[in-house]
């Protein structure tokens, strides 16, 4: 839950910032921290940008820990109304929690419905990319909400220790899909453009100096996007869903782009493990049940040669 800066020579903590105090939704902030040097109000600053599972994207001064931006990078996020950005406030830096979307046991099971995002977060393990040419971050996202019913559970060695029943589904009132691929301005805290996808975008993003951004979809498409406009330039259907990270390299004077396809992870657990209970996988089996209509298990490296 905490971004921590340490002195690498002494191990002493320099500053800390907690994204989701008293986490009730399983929004553990395991996502990447991207370090950039960018201009703010005419001054170059050393920044840290972190799109968190809780649906908020944070920009901090990585030298001092000062919180500069904390904004929703999916408008459907509803567990909080936002973060207090007043340095003089007693709640500075804390999210304002919407009580209707808190999870609770209260001595008996309480099923809280319509929480956005789901426990897998607006952003999970799939890494974002940054382009110093456009100054934008390219973020693969989940557009998924959940019902969350906690229950008391005793620890048993070797067994799952979760204590909650979850149902996952697309965020209501939007494009009906479960994902977006977005361009994010970490200084303004705004989405510059967004590409809706039927399923969560679980591949890593790749930004190139040619102003092209690549990502993959759970149906198995590798897509090339104009980094400035979000327009699709090219797509190719690989044999299986993509949760791998797009890469590029040069050999003998020619540039190549490669992607490993093979459905899996949280979104693919139903296919990979043959599960049918919609609540299995913390609700992921039910949430991504339709994936079997679009892709199958598999593992293949697909490599493209760029024309000279």
Automatic annotation (TrEMBL):
Belongs to the bacterial PQQ dehydrogenase family. Keywords: Oxidoreductase. Signal peptide: none annotated. One of its GO terms (molecular function) is oxidoreductase activity. It comes from the Bacteria. SMART domains: PQQ. Gene3D superfamilies: Quinoprotein alcohol dehydrogenase-like superfamily. Residues 3-69, 200-257 form the Pyrrolo-quinoline quinone repeat domain. Its cofactor is pyrroloquinoline quinone. The keyword Oxidoreductase applies. This is PQQ-dependent dehydrogenase, methanol/ethanol family. It comes from Roseovarius marisflavi.
